[in-house]
Prior knowledge:
Blueprint: E1 3-4, E2 9-11, E3 14-15, H1 18-26, E4 33-38, E5 44-49, H2 61-73, H3 97-101, H4 105-112, E6 125-131, E7 138-145, E8 156-161, H5 169-175, E9 179-180, E10 190-191, E11 201-205, H6 224-241, E12 249-255, H7 268-277, H8 283-294, E13 304-311, H9 317-320, H10 324-330, H11 336-351, H12 364-374, H13 376-379, H14 398-405, H15 408-413, H16 427-430, H17 440-449, E14 451-457, H18 465-473, H19 480-484, E15 489-493, E16 496-504, E17 507-512, H20 519-522, H21 524-536
Parallel strand pairs: 8-11, 8-12, 12-13, 13-14, 14-17
Antiparallel strand pairs: 1-2, 2-3, 4-5, 6-7, 7-11, 9-10, 15-16, 16-17
Amino acid sequence: MWRDNRNTVNSGGCRITQHDMAEDLHNAPQAKATLRVMATTGVAVSRTVSRLEVGLTLLPPVLWVSLSLLLLLLPSGSFELPGDAACPLAGDSLMLSPLIAAGQIHLAQEKSRVRCLPGADLESYSGFISVDKPECGSNLFFWFFPAQERPKDAPLVLWLNGGPGRSSMYGAMFEHGPYQLTNPVSDSVVRRNVTWVKSFSMLYVDNPVGAGFSHTNSCYSRTLNESTASLYSFLQQFMLLFPQYSKNDFYIGGQVGQINLELNKENVQLLVTLLNDLLSGKYVPALGYYIHHQMDSNDKPRMRLKGIFVGSGYCDPEKMLTQLPETLYTIGVYTDFDRRRHIQRVMDGWSSPDHNPYHSTDSPFSTLLEYYLSMDHTFKAFSYYDQRLDSSQEVSRDPALKAFLNKASVKNALHAGGNVFIFEPPFNHYATLEAIQGVRSEMAFLMDHYKVLHYTGNMDIIINVRMTEAFLMATPWSGQADYNNSQRYPWGYNGRLAGFYTQVRNFTRVIIRNAGHDAPADQPEWTLDMMQRFIDDKPF
């Protein structure tokens, strides 16, 4: 609703001038938007005008009445709103797939434009795209930011946070999106000084259904193939929605999420599911592999996949699990006895004739967590996401994000309507995912055909440098021998040591200094520099 505020006529930051009103009245037969005006008489008038995005001058009350009378004389019938000239009404979710299927691309783009989020002054788009069978009611939520520099030809980057239940809005708001939260009680955002949106068009997707704003009636993804197929369907429609980006270089990447569950006997099974699924690093290589093999089909539009990147990825449990106790021993948490007992428990878990590697309740992590419980006093003392921090210094950002995105005004601005933002994984729905399945073969294929980046914070414990190296050195790609005999080199940024890197053919391995599990948040400038070098093929 329009209201008088400091001599302006506005709604959710959308304002209009007298000149625009006159021009729109002149072009009324071609108008395509609905304007709701509350005149000074208190009478609401709804008629059509087309331009709703520009400057402001409050008309005198007498002209408001005249305008109301003129609007009443316009041809009857209102038109769909091409964009958010006015903020969406509470409870309205923006479902874009019907418009995409009908070829109403411009209308869909305009509807998805984010205009009414306080502090959000950059071009962005959000909404839902339907995946899976119609009866499933499955919809993936996205928030898309075109690049600030060279948007017409800047690379398009799909960002995925974690595995089931970890919303990619975390990456948008706390890692490298253009906005950040300073006060979760407020419904506004502020600009982030260092953002990947400067150089890349960033697409943040809540994946799979059930995570963040993404939702379904009952068709939760229970296998890696199911979630990958849903993501591919989403991308096909997104490329139709924004065809101008379908010809740009395309990258897929993500950073696994943090687990914020206390380690205790009651939570053992939940932690088993989380550790096996959330800390996966599986979705990025699985999707890249899937896209490559769809290129031989008639699916259109085609995607110009150029590469993938993974941060702290739990890609190969079989190779990685035995290296965790080695790291704990190296940093002084374990004695040699602890290290040997831990490794033996992992080996026993894999070699047991009763072991089912595709079921989380029978994973080696189950016995490991029971062992961790016996060392409860040790593991509660420090952060296993950043060895520099003790447990009292570790602060979860999840509650702030959840509180902010569940505010009605924020949900309306992002076209999420009445959907509830869910940050915790719906454990019962994902319990049958292939918990211990690795993606070594998919990663090997991608390393032979695309640019690949794998980065780790050197202060991370839960998915540490040694664990990742064990996986990479066992990955059977054509450059395996060269990588296994390669050297590290220092990487600097603005006169400081940012980390170390190794490059073999199209594969880049980066260790980020003074960073924990969440490297983009810990070292935003360095990780942006890393991404720019990787994507732009610049030397480190």
